[in-house]
Amino acid sequence: MTATAPPEPTDPVEQEADGPGDAGDDRFGAVRARATGVARWRPVTTATTLVMIVAGVATGAFWTPLADRPWASTVATGVPALAEGHWWTPASAALAGAHPAGALLGLVLAVVGLGWAEGRLGSGRTAAVLVVAQLVAVLAAIGVVAVLAATGWVWAVGLAGALTGGLSTGVLAVLAVASATLGAPWRLRLRLVLAGVALVGLLFLGHLADAAHTLALVVALPLGRRIAGPELAPATPGGRPGRREWRLVAAAGLVVIAVIRVLTLVVPVVGPLGNTASDSTVVETLVSVVISLLLADGLRRGRRIAWVAGLVLGGFYLVVGLFVVGVVVFAQVTDQMDQVELVGLAVFVPNAVLWSALVVWLVAGRHAFAVPSRRRLRRRTGGVASGPEVARDAVHRHGGSTLSWMTTWPENRYLTHEATDGVTAYRVHAGVAVALGDPIVAPAGRTAALEEFRALAERSGWVPCLFSTTEALADDARADGWRSLQVAEDTLIDLEGLEFKGKPWQNVRSAFNRAGKAGISHRMVHLAEEPRAVVAQVRAISEEWVGDKGLPEMGFTLGGVEEALDPEVRTGLAVDADGTVHGVTSWLPVYGPDDVVVGWTLDVMRRRQDGFRAVVEYLIASACLTFQSEGASFLSLSGAPLARAGDADDAVEGEQVLDRVLDRMGELLEPYYGFRSLHTFKAKFQPRYAPMFLVYRDEADLPRVGIGIGRAYLPDARVRDLVALVRS
């Protein structure tokens, strides 16, 4: 029977308006609107902008540096102004920039930045942070400079005679506090930009304003959530960046380093760490910039070789920076400072600071840079594909289970089976080799593949296990001396004759009805072929979901946008008439032994927070109809990790222990990842269930196996993350 479009709703439940869950989707914005009491009207921004314009015109700050005026110390502030008794200058200096470029840039920053922040924080809180941060940070910077100047530090001595002006310090502090009201990934992005502006300015410019910026952000960023208040800040303040975020920040850092390399050649200044003038030639600078940009592109793509090269270069600059510091210290101790020429060397010190920060980021996010180089994806002999390409070829040749396409993801290791022309994909964590699903071999070769995998693990000193296998593989393994334990259930929807009729499908028909009223349509696409604007929306939806979980992004049997960009993966989009993506699902192909797609497995399933609540039901039901019309036999909604309906009453003692451990892990992770809620959600599609098994060798291995599986899903989780999880 062919698929039919869902009928118009006739049941009373379908006529109801959106429930409390739908109405609450935008509750955060409503709370902010009530808390701030402002909408389009921005009184603080408007008043500040008008006063800055009047002050800039009156003092001529928009076209002439204040330092050129004889009365500069009565308007601008600094050590000289306060020493002359002009106590009002910290306030007056905020209204007029010390230099025309700074005055105009400060005006733009106030209009754009202050206006946006006032809309997030409200007028009262914005005004308080602006005034307090501006005055306190500027006075603190002047005090620090005065103290350091007494030590003879060249940079501090220079600043002790300088004047500054502008409101940028207060505006940056307001932006830092307002960043606490953002969700992921924009919260992290804005904070990194603010920290980068302060750090680069302090290291390579070293003006009094840069010192004030740094001091303001050192206080405002950590206290931003508390200052913003619980009614404005998101419920989950933490969260870890997703893989793409790790990559983008690393790439952006290298681009910044390349730009600074050019600026230090063209516009050198005396910063806190010395003269930033570079003695490099134009050609040397050009080569350095090209290398940085190539590495940035490799890091953006998550290439392992670019990650290694970044660590090597960062280590080099760190060593050179430490060497320069050592030379300076030695010269000062031996009174030979006059004989040391630091121009051309001192620039390495601030560069070393930036490279050190990049190295820390690369090490912390090392899991995001696991994509092997193209060269390593091929064997050196005969040009036969290896790595993920071997898994891809094996899936096409032999077919596989609903999880088999996950073996093509780059984080896996591979054991090739020459006799059976297949492959086993696995990962190693905590001394455990965790194979992903069934070996990709013909049914007759399963036993041989299991034996080869066991032998590999024993040679390497690993404990072998296979996670989320089919029942057929578990039966073969038990016959060969392995043990098995059900750990999940695959949820399968048979597409033949599927029609969304009757009371069990009320929710699905209601989802179609709501989508129609909202002007939302379903598109099944190859995401890599979509316009950049669409891909950007999909990334934003995914990163918003990942960033606010409070724990790192999970992996292993859970993919993301990068995996959805595979040309053989399909992506379902719920798009309205304006082109806004409200929800996204990605579907992994399930191949039969004759290289024909027989089904599809759900991977990514995410929705926009302010989208209509039933969008996921709409996407899955639409995918059922689409794949049914294409001749697919079934859809797998996949097995939610650590969520299953089975029990272990008949298991041996060791299995019962592991079962309880996995059950407890499921309970602990539920508030963060919602696996059990997801498992319950899938039941509304009337699926049939297929058990998924953990296959292992010995009950004595179960404690390590449990740890290995946990690390496979959370390879980047820190100890304190897990401790906080248990304490919660």
TrEMBL record:
TM spans (from-to): 44-63, 97-117, 129-149, 155-176, 188-205, 248-270, 282-299, 306-331, 343-369
Lipid bilayer topology: Multi-pass membrane protein
Main location, first listed in the record: membrane
Domain called Phosphatidylglycerol lysyltransferase C-terminal: residue spans: 395-696
Region (Disordered): 1-26
Extent of Pro residues compositional bias: 1-10
Name by which UniProt lists this protein: DUF2156 domain-containing protein
Protein's organism: Actinomycetospora aeridis
